[in-house]
Design goal:
The chain is mainly α and about 290 residues long. The chain has helices spanning about 1-35, 55-60, 60-95, 100-115, 115-130, 135-140, 155-180, 185-195, 200-210, 210-225, 230-235, 250-260, 260-294, and strands at about 40, 50. The chain has a two-stranded antiparallel sheet with strand order 1-2. A hairpin with a 7-residue loop joins strand 1 and strand 2. Helix 3 (about 60-95) runs antiparallel to helix 10 (about 210-225) and helix 4 (about 100-115) packs across helix 7.
Length: about 290
């Protein structure tokens, strides 16, 4: 019992420095934001207690509602499409023989992950401009009537931003899923072929179950990226035109630094934290259940 107690205190001593840093720079600001969410404060003067007014505004002000809705729309672009295309791309690359082409394919897909998001946003702003590469290609193939200022169009601005998210997330999902495929026992594929399984059935019966943990990681990472997106949208559209591409991150920035409504920004930040946890925790439970099955 004494030895166990000593190990317990020894472990706490090792954890304590990291926990203190985490508490100072994460937990304390989080609690302060929760406190500010009940006040009307411009960040400089005297704060006035307003109760749940800031929280009610989250569900009554059109621009804040639009920010939350847009975040969910971006999940389709940041999560559903990259994970689906990542599975296809990883399966195709896995069939390639090791060599220069396979290496170049992996590197090309992963490049967006090492490019700063601000730089990516600027680059895609050029591509989407009236004289950008996207419109030039459309004119080249005879679809000049479809050319437009994509990031300034009220209908296509949000999907255009979503395409940037697909480009950024696809490489991460592909590389992670490809590494997961390398851990699947080849005997399972041989058994499936002996049973007469085709490529599609083999993919459904062997590959997908074997990639359960990797898919959970991909979904977790991309969902968080969609809900907390800021860099690309702030650089490319600043939430416009109007409020068509505004997301919680941009709305928090506007409320805090431009409108000086720190209390309302804090309420939105806390709500965003709750929203992320509400979506991520059930996904993480799937990963834990998989571990228990093993």
């Amino acid at each position: 019992m004494r030895a166990r107690g000593r190990r317990h205190w020894s472990a706490l001593l090792w954890v304590a420095p990291a926990f203190l840093v985490y508490a100072r720079f994460v937990l304390v600001p989080l609690l302060q934001s929760l406190q500010y969410s009940f006040y009307d404060w411009d960040g400089i003067g005297v704060a006035t207690f307003t109760g749940f007014t800031n929280w009610v505004d989250l569900f009554t002000q059109p621009q804040l509602i639009r920010a939350i809705v847009n975040a969910f729309v971006l999940i389709a672009f940041y999560t559903v499409v990259p994970v689906g295309l990542g599975l296809i791309a990883a399966s195709l690359i896995r069939e390639l023989k090791p060599g220069p082409f396979s290496t170049v394919a992996r590197a090309a897909l992963f490049i967006p992950q090492v490019i700063p998001l601000v730089a990516a946003g600027i680059a895609w702003t050029w591509l989407y401009s009236q004289s950008g590469l996207v419109n030039q290609v459309l004119r080249l193939v005879g679809l000049g009537g479809a050319a437009r200022a994509w990031l300034g169009d009220f209908t296509f601005a949000l999907p255009a931003v979503g395409v940037i998210g697909i480009w950024v997330m696809l490489g991460f999902c592909t590389v992670l899923l490809l590494s997961g495929m390398g851990k699947i026992d080849p005997a399972l594929y041989e058994a499936a072929r002996l049973d007469g399984a085709g490529r599609i059935h083999e993919f459904i019966a062997v590959t997908l179950p074997g990639l359960r943990q990797e898919i959970v990681v991909c979904v977790t990472f991309t969902v968080v990226a969609a809900l907390t997106s800021f860099d690309i949208i702030q650089v490319s559209t600043q939430g416009g035109p109007g409020y068509q591409t505004i997301v919680p991150g941009v709305a928090i920035y506007r409320l805090s630094f431009l409108d000086q409504h720190v209390g309302q920004a804090s309420a939105l930040a806390i709500f965003l934290t709750i929203l992320v946890l509400a979506l991520i925790l059930p996904i993480q439970r799937l990963r834990q259940e998989r571990r228990r099955e093993r």
